[in-house]
Queue: 2 jobs
Job 1
Amino acid sequence: MVTLKDKQFKPYISSDKILEAVKEVAKKINSDLAGESPVFLAVLNGSFMFAADLMKEINLPCEISFVKLASYHGTTSSGTITELIGLNQDLTGRTVIIIEDIVDTGNTVEKLAEILNNKKLKSFKIATAFFKPTAYTKNIKVDYVGMEIPNDFVVGYGLDYDGLGRNLKDVFVLA
Ligand code: 5GP
């Protein structure tokens, strides 16, 4: 058991199992994108651990940037604006792979797709360590999934509860 603030979490997915799944994802990316030179965009904060493990298994000539989605309220007429920060390179004509920690409802993935669709990419793919198929509400294809999990709240392997737990190498679920 792990206690984070007021909540207890029990072991759920071991580090060994996660790393096996990450290797499978890397294998698929290496074979699907053979001959290409993709740009990986790791979405902070949660994806840092998955990004590091995944990149060690990628054998393509590739680049990586760390980005963050930032939402703020614009003028009264424009409502909430979502911006991608940390992207300092031109992606025109590039093959881009988003690295996410977990895809839940798909809201994040949808916002990223909207932003990247305006950038004249060659292609755009999504890789996530964890995917909750029963929570997902979007039509955007999630191309590479480490593991599918039920609609439970998990921490560890980059995922936090109120800022804590990102350092845990195994994944834990609310007890
Ligand atoms: P979505 O936009 O797909 O609903 O949610 C994606 C984001 O919600 C993730 O990047 C993550 O920050 C957070 N999230 C979704 N499910 C979980 C979960 O089970 N545990 C934690 N710690 N964060 C989650």
Job 2
Amino acid sequence: MNEQLLLGQTLGFGADPFAGGWQAATRHSAHGAVLVRDGRIAATGEASDLRRAHPRATVTDYGDALILPGFVDAHMHYAQTGMIASWGKRLIDWLNSYTFPEEMRFGDPAYARGQADLTLDIALANGTTTLASFCTIHPESVTAFFEAAEARGMGVVAGKTCMDRNAPEGLRDTARTAHDDSKALLEAWHGRGRATYAITPRFSPTSTPEQLEAMGALWAAHPDCLMQTHLSEQTDEIAWVRDLFPTARDYLDTYEKHGLLGERGLYGHAIHLEPREIDRLAETGAAVIHCPTSNTFIGSGLFDMAGLKARGIPVGLATDTGGGSSFSMLRTMAAAYEIGQLRGTPLHPAQLLWLATEGSARALHMGGQIGTLTPGAHADLCILDLASTPAIAQRSTRAEDIWEAVFPTIMMGDDRAVRAVWVSGRPV
Ligand code: GUN
Ligand code: ZN
């Protein structure tokens, strides 16, 4: 039996650190170990105990480095890797000027595969082992992403981004083709290996009511799939939605009316919400995905983490590249912290790390499978060097506890802090 034993500091969670307080939720060991067998975590515990119990396991000693679950990026656009960091526009102009021209290129399977490979390699270098990605309207773009992930043993979520209006010629499908192409893709990929399909209407402004209806019918027929879209990101976007859907009660209602509100729904951004929208999200158990570097980069607004968590709404954390300005979930946690500060509700490092791992995993309905060091989960791991640069090292050496040791890496770290990454029980 091939067993691998990873030694280092370990950090995991027994509960949501927003719910009962981070102290009780956290499991930290300064001399911990993770036992990996057949691609899964077989045990997590004290190094001395696991060494004694598994003397034949192959040992990799990461010293003082911190063994975490791999990061889970719950909302991103792999087709926007090529135009990340495009200057000076707000959402709708940004889409038209930068995003749509780039997404147009993904009808070419070779280009799509190249960008999928590139994006997944950048993600892995940053310690991200699962991504939920929008693709483009081209079915080829979905196939390319799932194939690239499968080649790396990664569990990913993806779907064909559907648009049948307010997008340029060449980037529009129809209600019928969106339904039929998505159906063929989900039948091919959902549940194949570690792949999960998400039905993906881009956002209400780029779908007719007929297309939203067709997507809702598809989700009703395949309720085990996820559904991902965007919600209430910018105020001018919301005003546009009001014009396009004059009978809708609010933005969320444009989805709700068409069968696109449910527990397995993922709503990116969700910044400028009405009380009714918050009530309905809470009642249905739908998840919202916080994309902090995107929200500052495109100038969208300040997400209300404290308020939405207090309502029991599942929240995931995400880069939203290329609207987001970084592939790093460390940088993303730092931005979430800064937005919390601007709202007067700073997040504890335990809450940030939980969001980037288990919180996102739960939002994707993959709790217990990823984003955790619990036995039975996929052995997707990120090992962080907590002294990766001189600036970080001089601070972390003064640390008096694990939080002071890890917070400088959250705030100042990047891919240099990622000492090693394991996917499905193998180092990459
Ligand atoms: N809303 C609709 N499409 C997009 C997108 O690609 N990025 C972001 N940030 N918001 C969107
Ligand atoms: Zn997005």
